[in-house]
Description:
There is one protein chain. The protein has 78 residues and is α+β, with helices and mostly antiparallel strands. The protein contains two helices and three strands, in the order E-H-E-E-H. Strand 2 (41-49) and strand 3 form a beta hairpin. Helix 1 (19-36) runs antiparallel to helix 2. It is elongated.
Amino acid sequence: MENIASQDNPSYISQGRSFSETVMLFVDDVARKTTDLSKGFATGREKVLGNEYNYTIFGLAQCSPELNSSECKICLGI
């Protein structure tokens, strides 16, 4: 697993963000890590804590091997 970028940070909810904002930031972070790696993929995990819930969300993003970094960023929307 040393070739996989991962994220295991405290929740954005604790910083005053909504659940949907947290998910959007998480997806963006995983996508950005994908384009920074020579392997062309990245995974992430984020704990999301709220007053009445405790979730862990997981993400995976992968670029097609024939795309360069710039094309991958366009494809992933970053």
